[in-house]
Structures are given as structure tokens and as C-alpha cells.
Design brief:
Number of strands of chain B: 0
Number of helices of chain B: 13
Number of strands of chain A: 9
Distance between the termini of chain A: 11 Å
Strand order of the largest sheet of chain A: 1-2-9-4-7
Oligomer: heterodimer
Radius of gyration of chain B: 24 Å
Strand content of chain B: under 5%
Helix content of chain B: 55-70%
Helix content of chain A: 40-55%
Order of helices and strands of chain B: HHHHHHHHHHHHH
Radius of gyration of chain A: 26 Å
Structural class of chain A: alpha+beta
Number of helices of chain A: 5
Distance between the termini of chain B: 30 Å
Largest sheet of chain B: none
Chain lengths: ~200, ~250
């Protein structure tokens, strides 16, 4: 089974880091121009300091403001979005629950691992959600989820999810109902499989 | 900034010694003054004197903040403190430096030293002005201190806001041409010399009024120019054939 491989649809952290370092290097250049002007005033240093420095400051402030705005909007947005390729593991059974997942595109398989082996207990598709029961019960995930196709999911963080449940009371009932329905389906499926013998969907 | 007065072997105790703040104080307080020509206290320009020290402090603090941020956080924003240091070092201090620095730019742009720093083109003019034997108007005004300071600027810029701004604009173009070697020799004024730049000082001087009574109306009306009479005996500058100096 392949390991967890989240590819969130966000700016590469390297780009953000590069932007911040570049802004700081530009600021150092501004200080250098200032020092050169102070220590050795001539046409060149004056020209650079009075025209070049404001330009460099503008560029570094734009880079800084860009990163700050990006961070702000990312923090303000309710969901994080992620893409998974077929076979990618979204989370493993026993992992700590950090997100509730809402499928936007594609299909995933829920896999329960026990002494007998691994069993696909459900196949979820667009519009369905998973991972929320572990958030509600504050336990670890009771199943592994694997991408069956290319999947795009919206991920709602633990704090935001609990916040939502706290303030939007009807949502609590809906989600609990959905979780119970899912659990019932899984139980009946397991009961049916155990009555048929060890063949079933066991992998 | 490097402080050469600190001996090499003292660097082993650098971090825990008292030399570090002393060295920073030296760099901030004395280097800006040593870099400028020493003047008597009554000749010091307070804007330049205190402005350069203030900017030196801003530069030292700003560089310290940026270096600390670079080495401590390495471009990763980890919390409010890192952002505060990042914004201070990358935006706030540079803006203060540039903002207050431009006040100093306007002050220093007027100095004779700055005009003379374009050696290839201006040095011969400054040399002539500072030559006590020269009979040029520039030298007479300079040697007798008819103009206390910023002599080039005072004679070549009409008073007032637009004159100053115009001078700065033209100065920038001149600096660009100088460093890109796109200037042409011999240097020529962009427009005929304005009599107003002479008259702004002389027109109400008792000696001048007495000597120019018969020409005064013609000069004020723009029918006569100062250099019409003074060119022969006292040229503006004694730079006859200007060539590139090595």
C-alpha cells in the first residue's frame, strides 16, 4: 500500500520562501545603497540611492504584501483543497484525525484492515464526505482511505469543523445522521460478507 | 561597515565583550562624519550632521534585523514575531531610510563636492572656481565667499520650488549621461544663462545699484544681459578647451 501523499492545491512553499528571502535581499541592497551614499556621496551613489532604492523597496514590499495577503486569504478560507492520484492514501487506519473530507471529483475506497486482511468497506464518490466521524468522536481514523481514481477533495480542518458544529446546530444532526447511516451500511455489508465466507471483497 | 580599529585577537571575546556596542557606536557616530569633509562647528549643516547619524542608526538596525531574520527564520514565516521582524527589516526601516535619506539627498545634491565628483566633466570647472589666481566670476565669488556654500548650485539654479526640482531632474539626466559616457564635450548650458540668477543677489546691493544705474532698466527689461559686459574681463569659468581627463 502506498504511503500518504497529499498534494494540496496551494502555492509551493518554496515559492513563498523564495519571495520572502528575495524581499530581504532587496532590503539589504537598499541598506547598502544608503551606506554607500552616506559614506561616499557622489553622482552615482546619489543617483542609485534616490532612484534605485525606492524601486527596490517597492518590489520588496509588493513581494511581502503578496505573501501576507496569500497567507491571510488561506487562513480565512474555510477549506483547503487537495488532489490525489489513483492509489494515493488519503489517511491510514489509526492515523490522527485532522480533517473532514468532502469529495468534489473522483472516487475513494474505504478499507478496513483486521486480522483477516484488508476489506473494502465502502466506495465513496462526488458529493459524499468522510473522516468526520473521527473528528466528532475525537478518535483516530477507523479505516484507511485510498483514491480509486483521480480525486479532488475539499478538506475542512478539525478546529473549523468543530467550530461549525458548535455554531450551526442543525449541521450536527445531519452529520450524525449521515455517519450513522454509513455505519449501518458498513455493518450490514460486513454481516453479509461474513455469512458468505472469507471470499467476498477481501484483498 | 568594517571597524578596523578592533584587533584581530579580540574577536574571540567578541560576543561576550563590551567591544560590540562600542564598535557599533563608533560605526554609527564617527564614520558618517569622517566620510564628510571636516568643517568648523559653525559651518556644519545641522540637517546633514544629525541626518547622516540618524540614517546610520537606521541602516545598522535594519541590517541587523534582516540578517537576524534570514539566519533565524530562513525565509519561513513562523508566527507574529517573525512577521514583525520581517516587516520591520524589509519594509519599515528601508522606507524610513529612503524617506529621510531623500532629505539628505536634496541637501548633498547642492554641494560643490557632488558637482566635482563627476571628475571627467566637472573637475576643471571646480578647479577653476577654487583657484585663487583665476579671474573668472565663479572663482571671484568662491574666493571671497560672496556665496557661503553650495556655490555651483546657487548660481545655476533659479530660486523657488520649480527651479530646485528642475535642477534635480537635470542633475539626474547628467549623472546618467556621465556614467553611461553619453555626454558630449565641450559641455554646454541647456539654455542661455539666466540673468535672474545674478540679479537675485545683486539687484538690491548698494554697490551694484550705484555701478549699474544707467543699465538697470535695460537689464531688468531683459534687453541687456550681465555677460554682455562681463564676459571679456571676467568670464564665468576659465575653462577654455575642455578635454577628457584620465
Amino acid at each position: 500500500m502506498s504511503r500518504t501523499a497529499i498534494r494540496t492545491i496551494e502555492l509551493d512553499p518554496k515559492i513563498i520562501r523564495t519571495a520572502l528571502i528575495a524581499a530581504q535581499v532587496l532590503a539589504l541592497l537598499v541598506y547598502l545603497m544608503g551606506a554607500a551614499f552616506l559614506l561616499h556621496t557622489n553622482g552615482g551613489t546619489l543617483f542609485l540611492f534616490s532612484l534605485g532604492a525606492p524601486f527596490l523597496i517597492l518590489v520588496s514590499v509588493v513581494a511581502l504584501a503578496g505573501v501576507a495577503l496569500y497567507r491571510y486569504f488561506r487562513r480565512q478560507s474555510l477549506f483547503a483543497f487537495a488532489l490525489f492520484e489513483p492509489g494515493d492514501i488519503l489517511f491510514q487506519q489509526g492515523d490522527c484525525a485532522d480533517f473532514a473530507y468532502f469529495i468534489q471529483k473522483g472516487e475513494v475506497e474505504m478499507i478496513r484492515r483486521d486480522q483477516e486482511g484488508e476489506t473494502v468497506i465502502a466506495r465513496l464518490s462526488e458529493g459524499q464526505h468522510f473522516g468526520e466521524s473521527a473528528l466528532i468522536s475525537n478518535t483516530s481514523h477507523h479505516a484507511t482511505v485510498r483514491a480509486a481514481t483521480r480525486v479532488r477533495v475539499a478538506m475542512l480542518g478539525k478546529k473549523k469543523f468543530q467550530h461549525m458544529l458548535h455554531f450551526v446546530y442543525p449541521a450536527q444532526g445531519d452529520i450524525m445522521h449521515a455517519v450513522n447511516q454509513q455505519a449501518k451500511k458498513q455493518d450490514s455489508k460486513r454481516a453479509r460478507m461474513s455469512s458468505q465466507g472469507p471470499k467476498g471483497e477481501t484483498t | 561597515m568594517t571597524c578596523w580599529f578592533v584587533k584581530r585577537d579580540t574577536f574571540s571575546h567578541w560576543s561576550r565583550g563590551w567591544l560590540q556596542p562600542l564598535a557599533i557606536f563608533y560605526c554609527v557616530w564617527f564614520i558618517p562624519s569622517s566620510a564628510r569633509a571636516q568643517k568648523n562647528v559653525f559651518q556644519q549643516d545641522p540637517v546633514d550632521h544629525y541626518g547622516s547619524r540618524f540614517l546610520a542608526v537606521v541602516i545598522v538596525l535594519g541590517v541587523a534585523l534582516v540578517l537576524f531574520s534570514l539566519f533565524r527564520y530562513r525565509g519561513v514565516d513562523s508566527g507574529a514575531a517573525s512577521w514583525a521582524i520581517l516587516i520591520a527589516g524589509t519594509a519599515v526601516f528601508p522606507m524610513i531610510l529612503s524617506g529621510f535619506g531623500n532629505v539628505l539627498v536634496f541637501e548633498r545634491a547642492k554641494t560643490v563636492q557632488l558637482c566635482g565628483s563627476c571628475h571627467l566633466t566637472m573637475e576643471s570647472y571646480v578647479d577653476d572656481m577654487e583657484n585663487p589666481q583665476s579671474n573668472s566670476l565663479a572663482a571671484i565669488h568662491y574666493d571671497n565667499r560672496y556665496i557661503a556654500e553650495n556655490q555651483c548650485y546657487e548660481c545655476h539654479t533659479s530660486y523657488g520650488m520649480s527651479g530646485t526640482i528642475e535642477a534635480k531632474e537635470q542633475g539626474m539626466v547628467d549623472v546618467y549621461r556621465y556614467y553611461t559616457h553619453t555626454f558630449r564635450l565641450p559641455l554646454k548650458l541647456r539654455h542661455p544663462y539666466r540673468d535672474g540668477d545674478c540679479l537675485k543677489c545683486h539687484s538690491e546691493a548698494v554697490k551694484w545699484v550705484a555701478a549699474h544705474q544707467e543699465f538697470q532698466q535695460g537689464i531688468f527689461a531683459g534687453k541687456l544681459s550681465c555677460m554682455q559686459c562681463h564676459r571679456e574681463s571676467n568670464p564665468a569659468h576659465n575653462v577654455v578647451a575642455q578635454e577628457l581627463r584620465p
